[in-house]
Specification:
Blueprint: E1 2-6, H1 10-17, E2 28-33, H2 36-42, E3 50-54, H3 62-72, E4 77-82, H4 87-96, E5 100-103, H5 109-121, H6 138-141, H7 147-155, H8 159-173, H9 178-198, H10 204-208, H11 210-217, H12 223-262, H13 269-275, H14 280-291, H15 295-313, H16 318-324, H17 330-341, H18 345-352
Length: 353
């Protein structure tokens, strides 16, 4: 599988190239470019199977690049990388022929490789917004859907309220041509999937089902069928969220065990993210959601608890204790200890020695 990387940040391009042993995964990165215009120039001399491109870039962005590639090289597959607030750009890229998207903040190597494999296998299938059934007129109906409300319902997991809201919208939009109703449902599903992704609450199974869901919409011909389809889709999301949360719980348990065994070393958030092949920002999000704390807080708590134990039960000096729990700077250890306990390590020592 030959890949080309397009991103205006040199650091990201280089990081992408070095994030894993690509050849061991059957992938060859044959080129990179710093924007869409640069990519089109290089595509004259190289022929990748897949272009992975950032959405926002100077001179020519990922949306325009997607459109140009599909016009000039329709056989090339495109995977777009987006930030949390890029929904409209991603949707436009999908309409222009992109095969899929990944959030930059939550990329991990396994997810990326799975996505590359899937879009290659699905290259003959119709992508979500490249279907002939999508009618540009559906955009005119988009005003009736309050995306802020939908995002809030998803964030608060108010699924029954969401079902009722969408049911009301569909009823108010009726009677409308069947194809328009199908377009509304596709738009809703894509927005919901993207929103859950940005919230870190989407299971891989749900992401993989986007093509199936888009296809099943084609069979809808009545208002009641549309409502039933949407409600069953939400039920599927609820189920996938339960599975997703279970996976998060297992990951957090493993991370906490690793921290407990290594907190006295030079452990850091970056070390842990690398160890578990998880994007650092994504790791922070799921850890906070699961524990209502941060990884750094947990490391600090373990270190200070251990330092108290060493002060009480040994004759080690404070400098020795500082090194023993992973702090190379005694002054910093003193500050952290006081902040955590309200007294200095030496004051604590006087209570027990």
């Amino acid at each position: 599988m030959k890949i080309m990387i397009v991103d205006d940040e040199k650091l990201l391009r280089n990081g992408f190239k070095n994030m894993t042993d690509w050849s061991a995964k059957g992938i060859n990165i044959i080129g990179d470019a710093l924007n869409g215009e640069d990519a089109l120039e290089k595509l004259k001399t190289i022929s990748p199977d897949i272009v992975i491109t950032d959405i926002k870039m100077p001179i020519m962005d990922g949306v325009t690049l997607t459109k140009k590639i599909k016009e000039l090289y329709p056989h090339i597959l495109i995977l777009v990388l987006s930030s949390h607030d890029d929904y409209d750009y991603v949707r436009e890229s999908m309409k222009n022929g992109a095969s899929d998207y990944l959030l930059k903040a939550s990329i991990d190597i396994d997810d990326l490789c799975d996505t590359l494999k899937r879009i290659t296998q699905d290259s003959q299938k119709t992508s979500l917004y490249n279907s002939k059934n999508i009618n540009i007129e559906s955009v005119k109906l988009d005003f009736s859907i309050d995306k802020t409300k939908i995002r809030n319902y998803l964030e608060l997991q108010q699924y029954d309220v969401l079902k009722e809201y969408v049911s009301t919208i569909l009823k108010l939009s009726s009677p409308i041509p069947v194809t328009y109703m199908q377009d509304i449902l596709r738009e809703l599903f894509f927005f919901i999937e993207y929103t859950l992704d940005t919230l870190g609450s989407i299971d891989k199974g749900l992401k993989d089902s986007k093509y199936t869901n888009s296809a099943t919409v084609n069979s809808i011909s009545t208002l009641q069928e549309a409502i039933t389809w949407f409600n069953s889709t939400i039920d599927e999301i609820i189920k996938s969220n339960i599975n997703h949360n279970k996976k998060h719980t297992e990951i957090i348990k493993r991370i906490n065990t690793y921290i407990e065994e290594n907190f006295a070393t030079s452990i850091s958030l970056s070390n842990i993210a690398d160890k578990f092949f998880i994007n650092k920002n994504y790791l922070c999000d799921i850890y906070k959601a699961e524990t209502n704390s941060t990884i750094n807080d947990y490391i600090t708590t373990l270190r200070i608890d251990k330092s108290k134990e060493l002060i009480r039960d040994t004759n080690l000096t404070l400098t020795q204790i500082s090194y023993e729990i992973g702090y190379q700077n005694t002054s910093y250890f003193n500050r952290v200890f006081r902040k955590k306990t309200g007294i200095s390590p030496s004051e604590y020592m006087k209570l027990y020695r």
